[in-house]
Specification:
Layout lengths: L1 H28 L14 E4 L3 E9 L2 E10 L2 E4 L11
Antiparallel strand pairs: 1-2, 2-3, 3-4
Amino acid sequence: MATRTKVVIGFMIAVFWIASLVATAAIAQTGQPAVPQPPLMQPEVFVGVDFGFRISHYRGEIPVGVVVIKKDSKWVPVEFDSGMKVIK
């Protein structure tokens, strides 16, 4: 009888474990998928005199783009140097 009890308990644990996996998968599927925003026709540039931010698209309400500078009357993207430097 002790062996049968162990088998029943093991079976119940397996059933509850599988049920928890199914419940987790069901909850994960209820999330809203991200809706991509179409790119802007003309990229917007928010500028100062020679410095700006060109918006290429929006992620929700957050603008995504690149930092640009004006060089020879054209807006050119910049690249930042990475790493930390000591300023003296």
